[in-house]
Amino acid sequence: MQSPSRPTALITGGAAGIGASFARALARDGYRLVLVDRNGEGLQRFAGSFDADTEVVTADLTVEGDLARVEQRCREGVDLLVNNAGFGHPTEFLSTSAVAELAMSKLHMDVVLRLTLAALPGMIERGRGGIINLGSVLGFFPSSTYSASKAWVINFSQSAFTKARPSGVTVTVLCPGFTRTEFHDSAGMNMTKIPGFLWLEADALVKAALSDWRQGKAVSIPGWRNKTIAALSRLLPMRLILRIHAGTGKHSLAVRERTPVTRP
Ligand SMILES: NC(=O)c1ccc[n+]([C@@H]2O[C@H](COP(=O)([O-])OP(=O)(O)OC[C@H]3O[C@@H](n4cnc5c(N)ncnc54)[C@H](OP(=O)(O)O)[C@@H]3O)[C@@H](O)[C@H]2O)c1
């Protein structure tokens, strides 16, 4: 339940990577945390690793009953919702199973929509709080089903921003580029060809994102490199973007000689 003096932040995928960085940063800022993740053991271990008032919710958000529990928790009142849980596929969509594609679409789109619908009306009524949705700079480019789902997140978040803003509530879409987390390893992607200067640390990303959210920005693109990449999506002709993608996509995200973590 919400405390009038201490704001509550609910973070999906809150046990690892960018979600864990949000958790640590928001705990330092005095938030109570509701951490949602599907790996109960990892979640408990992470929640016990730092000093914070934390509620843990083990839930696979692609499973209807689990999602309904988290929706209910959002309706009970949260001040900041971070729709962060997500994953990518190591293969192009033509080589990925429909089941795995639909699980990703559900997590990136349906879950973001339903948790927003559960949390936002209460925030607007109270006239405070907000939502940070995880997009990606890839969402500005036609690159894959992953980028298509993140394009949806960017578009939807901007429309939610315009509805919420008059009440003082900010919906921000955070669009990271390459960020050092377990994301690529979990998906079995080989990232060795991506130059070091393009990577951001998750803690630095989250610091910039929270600053942008507090300033009431609709879109947060941390780092000048990511800002440049996003700007190119508006400046370059689509024909050239498609040719560049055809040339680079198959090299940069080539599947490693390893068995990726099993995804649905
Ligand atoms: N890292 C990047 O370069 C990058 C760039 C752009 C955007 N993003 C976005 O940033 C967000 C966070 O990514 P990350 O890099 O922090 O990845 P990560 O290190 O893999 O962390 C993602 C977390 O979400 C959890 N999760 C995945 N599926 C879930 C489900 N169905 N229900 C509940 N929890 C689930 C994961 O649990 P498991 O460990 O059990 O899978 C993991 O704890 C994602 O939306 C991603 O698309 C990341």
Automatic annotation (TrEMBL):
<dbReference type="GO" id="GO:0016491">
    <property type="term" value="F:oxidoreductase activity"/>
</dbReference>
<dbReference type="InterPro" id="IPR051019">
    <property type="entry name" value="VLCFA-Steroid_DH"/>
</dbReference>
<keyword id="KW-0560">Oxidoreductase</keyword>
<protein>
    <submittedName>
        <fullName>SDR family NAD(P)-dependent oxidoreductase</fullName>
    </submittedName>
</protein>
<dbReference type="Pfam" id="PF00106">
    <property type="entry name" value="adh_short"/>
</dbReference>
<comment type="similarity">
    <text>Belongs to the short-chain dehydrogenases/reductases (SDR) family.</text>
</comment>
<dbReference type="InterPro" id="IPR036291">
    <property type="entry name" value="NAD(P)-bd_dom_sf"/>
</dbReference>
<dbReference type="InterPro" id="IPR002347">
    <property type="entry name" value="SDR_fam"/>
</dbReference>
